[in-house]
Amino acid sequence: MRILMFGWEFPPHISGGLGTACYEITRTLSHHGAEIVFVVPRAEQSELSTHLQLVSASHSATPYPPTVDEFFEQLNIHPVDSILRPYLNDAEYLTVLNAATEQAAHRPKHRSVIEHATHYGHNLMAEVARYSEVGEDLAMTGDFDLIHAHDWMTFLASIRAKRATGKPLVVHVHSVEYDRSGDHMNQSVFDIEKLGMQEADHVIAVSHYTRNLILEQYGIPPEKVSVVHNAVSRRQVGKVYHVSRPRNEKIVLFLGRITSQKGPDYFVEAAAKVLAKSPNVTFVMAGSGDMLPRMIERVGELRLGRHFHFTGFLSGHDVERMYAMSDLYVMPSVSEPFGLSPLEAMLYDVPVILSRQAGVNEVLPNALTVNFWDVEDIANKIMAVIKYPALSRELLRNGRQALRNVRWEVAAAQIQLIYNKLLA
Amino acid sequence: MKMTMPSVCPTFLVHLPHPLKHYSFFDIGESAIYEDDAAIFTLLEKVATTSYLPANRIILKRIKEYKGDFRVSFSLSGTTLDQLERFRPEVLDSFKRLADTGYVEFVCEPYFHSLAFLFSMLEFREQVELHQQKMVSLFGQHPTAFINTELIYNDDVGHEAEGLGFAVILAKGTKGLLEGRPQNRVFQPDSSATLKLMLSNHDLSSKISALISGPSDPKNRLTAALFAQHLEPTQETSNVITWLLDLEIFGESSLHDTGALEFLDQLPGAMLARNGVRFETLTQAAKHRKTAESISSPGFTSWEEAERKFPEWVGNEMQKDALHALYLMEQEVKAHHNPAMLQTWRNLQTSDHFRYMRTAQLDEDVLIKATNPFHSPYDAYINFMNVLTDFSERLSAPPPQRKTNRGSES
Question: Are A391 and A269 part of one and the same domain?
Fold first, then answer.
């Protein structure tokens, strides 16, 4: 079976769960014999070198078993020059575009790079449209049985590939516009998502939560939409980190994009309540995003600076270290299609508090949950985890048990079944 | 061989949870009100009106009608009696009227529906004594039968009950305890010289509960006559069947009429219509049977869990932590000689608080979820620990100065 897959850069080079999901899905599918032509956007002037190095570097601490060779034999990576990256919105796209242009301008030797930089779309939609052209080109040259696309920026490319070849199309929805933008939805993005789901022969949603949004907001017929939950790989846990810090100091972590979708503001407000009661707690907000400046400002306003740290964007070992240092992970997302990071935190034996509006709850029936808007309750539960050690022990025990059934192999087998049905 | 009909011992349980109110970490030091009176009142109101009052009316009517031929036993938790006293005293009166007939036995249990036997023998004995006094003062009966909270039983419980002067103890007839023996008889625990052990017939009891409390098609409805027909004569002359039933299952549901009260109403007549059937109270049944087979029970059995050791209440880290923290306070609480404080501490011992913290098979156990006022076992634990932290701080705080007397006081 040959799959033309439109995906995203593998970890640790991108933020968010999309890259991780792409990596794990291609790895496990390849392991079970699928041949994958993997198409990813990658800016030419990027300092990242080749994909192969990229992957081996990120896993130097824990080399993958022999399957890794098998994996790369069967995975034909096809980078396409584009500055698209997951979760971009219009404004962020322009920032990225300016940065790319500027970077090129500062290196006058490479005139050609400037040309490259300037050929990117003048806005996000233009770039998505430009990117879609590769879909058709690839479809005409490649030999494959099925097309699989991850999230909306690749949908147009995959639709063109389908139209050019008539091969079945699977679109994989990791998030929808409603998750990312709430009530301020971008109509063009919504339209592309809808078109992708309509044109697709089958739609994969990462949770029932997301599936419901797909049925209700996009009007896609239920029989066409399956749920394949994301998972977490134990091998992702690298070295054991021995982190020394004051014994009485507890670290409470927020790690994710600092955007309204993730509810960082609720984390800050809860921190203020906790710190008013208990000064021996340090709050860490790791990540970047358009709400970061406002969050920094608010922390200043509340005079929490001494106990509240911003790390900026973390990747690779820094993420692992951050998890290892933490006593509690909090995910107060307003709308979370799945939410991989709590599973990762749990791998480091960090208890988690989850928003009830998160798909990941579907695989963690015994999680400690909150309503994201209930700052008082979030603070109450942070205090409880810190003050009552039996709660952490119980959460970790139940978490480990739940994680046993949350494996990428299961996800890949479910995807394989969907492929088989479409090709039968 | 001569065949005889068995005796039956209907035993009704009366206990309602008294949930804590939502108590956040930020309430610690701010509020000393722990119980959710509104929720308690609402539940009590509903159960009293739809079940306790009409069920007691029916039982009273039939007792008066059949005189000594229809007898029942009641096990009333002290905490629920306290609530009835506060909110619905007429329900207490209905129990008193039942007591006045002389055909109703009131069984003793640890007053606060607590797990004290597992954590503090001193506290256990005090609660048993409190309950005995309550039975005497309310009903003029000195109880001779005992049921431990949640039917927790082993040889040690039996030994203790005998030491406290009880003639009979009730436990659950589990497979592990019976080891293949027929259960409808009176036993003699190995650990006791005089105490008799009776075992509730769980299959029959849960059959009755399921049939009359589930949504039912009148065609499939369990009628008392049908139920009575299933009673088989046996070769044994000392046969006795103990039904252990929550009184609240005999009630009118707003959703559907299950005919539960009608079943209760018809039951005595239908049973007595079968020749040779007798109704007995627990103590009567035990006294009337001279020979009793000996039985040993080194391991615990209980209401919910037949074979394992109490996962229901003390199975996970949270339950263990909460219970140990609670009972660790005993000496300090009692040293205060402050009745209000003691009462608060004891109300925190009620087993429901720990049942809400149960995590095992959480998603499957619909019933547990339905009766759990908390969103999750973690929420139950957090809430309880917040309350306990506040209580503990108040306990160790210096007593407030009396306002009448300015200056130092010693």
Answer: yes
Q: Do both B271 and B377 map to the same domain?
A: no
Choose the weakest-confidence range: A213-222, B1-10, B40-49. B1-10
Q: Which CATH number fits the domain that encloses residue B88?
A: 3.20.110.20
Query: What residue in A sits closest to B382 (Cα-Cα)?
Result: A384
CB A162 within 8 A of CB A5: no
pLDDT for B208-229, tens place per residue?
Answer: 777 776 655 666 677 888 888 8
- Residue B146: which of B124, B162, B126 has the closest Cα? B162
- Of the listed ranges B83-97, B153-167, B209-223, the one predicted with least confidence: B209-223
Closest approach of A180 to chain B, Cα-based (Å): 27
Domain count, chain A: 2
pLDDT at B364: 47
Which positions in chain B touch A275 (Cβ < 8 Å)? none
Domain around B259: 7-295
**Residue type (1 letter), A117:** A
Residue B376 in contact with partner chain A when CB distance is under 8 A: yes
Burial category of B140 from C-beta neighbours within 10 Å (exposed 0-12, middle 13-18, buried 19 and up): exposed
Tell whether A379 is within 8 A of chain B (Cβ): yes
Closest to B253 measured CA to CA, from B101, B49, B12, B84: B49
B376 in a structural domain: yes
Same domain, A100 and A220: yes
- Write the pLDDT tens digit of every residue in B34-78: 999 999 999 999 999 999 999 999 999 999 999 889 999 999 999
**A273 and chain B in contact, CB less than 8 A:** yes
> Does the ipTM exceed 0.95?
no
A381 and A412 part of one domain = no
Q: Which residues of B touch A277 (CB under 8 A)?
A: 25-26
The answer to whether the Cβ–Cβ distance between A394 and B25 falls below 8 Å is: no
Residue-number span of the structural domain to which A62 is assigned: 2-231+407-423
